[in-house]
Amino acid sequence: AVRERIADINSAVENSIQGIREVKSFTNETYEMGKFHAVNSEFRSAKENMYQTMASFHAGMIFNIEVFSLVLIAAGAVMVNRGTVSFADIIGFQLFVKTMMNPVRRLTNFYEMYQQGVASFERFTEIMDIEPDINDSPNAIEPPALTGEIHLDALGFKYLSSPDWILKDIDIRIPAGATVALVGESGAGKSTLASLIPRFYDVTEGRILIDGYDIRTLKQRALRASVGIVHQNVFLFDTTIRDNILFGRPDAAEADVIEAARSANIYDFIQSLPDGLDTLVGERGVRLSGGQQQRVAIARVFLKNPPILIFDEATSSLDAESEALIQNAMERLCVNRTTIIIAHRLSTVKKADKTYVLRGGRLVEQGRHDDLIALGGYYNELYSRSAY
Ligand code: ADP
Q1: Which of 29, 108, 143, 294 has its CA 20 to 30 A from that of 245?
Q2: 23-43 pLDDT per residue, tens
Q3: CB distance 159 to ligand 1 below 6 Å
Q4: Ligand 1 contacts CB of residue 192 (under 6 A)
Q5: Residue 187: CB within 6 Å of ligand 1?
Q6: How many C-beta atoms lie closer than 10 Å to residue 142's C-beta?
Q7: Cβ distance 330 to 295 under 8 Å?
Q8: 236 φ, ψ to 5°?
Q9: Residue with the nearest Cα to atom 10 of ligand 1?
Q10: What are the backbone angles phi and psi of residue 368, rounded to the nearest 5°?
Q11: For residue 86, how many other CB atoms are within 10 A of its CB?
Q12: Is 201 helix (H, G, I), strand (E, B) or coil?
């Protein structure tokens, strides 16, 4: 119980600290402290319980030993008085018992340590026994280089945490090298659909084929090596810009890193920094703007050079210059790759070979921008609401 409560404290503290900006901006420090006190007092009572048990155990043991000595002395005195036992025998016996008590004491101490060890080990095995949801099948194969032809075949998907279908009856064929846009209102299932391709989740029904291989038959490493992702909220590590770009392919040569940065339209900016590629980013270094972070993420993918690309466009509008630099880098990155863009901008939708319109997890329309407008349906409605 003590160890479980410690885990609760850790997760509560982690959560509060991660959300420190929210806590401060809503001036909810007292509320967060209250939450901490709650888990902490549970920890305290677990700990008190443990000390209580240990105290009665030790006190009981010492009481027994001492009572035993007293009885021995009293009984010995009576026996010596009656002349049944000699005084030397009693003293000898007493010393013998004392010597014997030491190993007993050591054994009980050992037992206590052993119990603590077993409890910790059980927690350890409990955690180690958790199986990841997604595993390589025993006969998973390493495919030859993929070209990136994608077929979503009668696909349906539910999250384990909820009974609702998030995606249903999705049929999409994307030829290798094509660029497609996914559009739809927030919550329509665009991000979910995109996260099924690198197999962050397994489909609930139907299948996803890449170059004709069901992705569940491929080694995850091979599959994910073939998919590059640029998220809306880019994550950069607290290290140098170089290391952040190298994350795409850690063994890449310096010239390739520079080439990737150049293709991602971020090289000039990097050069303007005093330490160039060695500039630290994040907590310990310079803070990059959203647009600059996205371009570093694009450079990463240039270095990785995968046949399939998933790009989640930033919803918040960037400044015009940043926007143009990203667009331009993206266009370069899309060349010869199958690209799926979760689109938030009309300019992207217009350039896509095909646009898929999702509504409530279903594919309701598909085609090029002009045709979809001419259709006068849901996309047209989204467009006239200037969602696109
Ligand atoms: P979009 O990208 O189009 O805004 P999402 O794919 O993020 O849509 O979400 C589709 C639906 O799936 C939403 O109703 C959302 O609440 C739900 N959803 C998203 N992620 C999870 C998750 N991890 N667990 C359960 N439901 C989720």
Answers
A1: 143
A2: 999 999 999 999 999 999 999
A3: yes
A4: yes
A5: yes
A6: 9
A7: no
A8: -110, 140
A9: 189
A10: -90, 160
A11: 11
A12: coil
